[in-house]
Amino acid sequence: MLAEEVQKLVKDKLPDCEVHAQGEGNSFQVTVIGDVFNGMSPVKKQQLVYSTVTEYIADGRIHAFTIKAYTPEQWDNL
Fold first, then answer.
1. Which of 2, 17, 60, 66 is the most buried if burial means most Cβ atoms within 10 Å?
2. Separation between Cα atoms, residue 26 and residue 39, nearest integer Å
C-alpha cells in the first residue's frame, strides 16, 4: 500500500478531519486533526482512527499503524 491510500481510507471514514499519512509497504504513521476528537480520551481517539483501517490490519495489508490524533486546538498548540 501507499501512504496516499491509507490517507484516503482514514479520510473516507472521518471526512471532517484533516489527515496526513506517511509510510510504505505495510507500516504507516497517521496524524488526524478534527473536532470529532473534542472531549475524547487519548485511548478513544486511537480507537476511532484505528477502526478506519481494521479490515486492512486483519488481512495483513497494514502491519504497523501509528496514530497521532488531535483536536484543532491541540494541533494549534503544538
1. 17
2. 31
Count up the domains in the chain and report the number: 1
Tens digit of pLDDT for each residue in 7-29? 999 999 999 999 999 999 999 99
Which amino acid, residue 59?
D
CATH, residue 49: 3.30.300.90
* Confidence tier at 55 by pLDDT (50, 70, 90): very high
**Looking up cell 489527515, which residue turns up?**
19
Residues 45 and 30: beta-carbon distance below 8 Å: no
Write out the residue range of the structural domain in which residue 9 sits. 3-76
Rg (CA), the chain: 12
Strand ranges for 10-74 from DSSP E: 18-24, 27-33, 64-70
- Residue 16, classed as helix, strand or coil, is coil
Which 3 state secondary structure label does DSSP give 2? strand
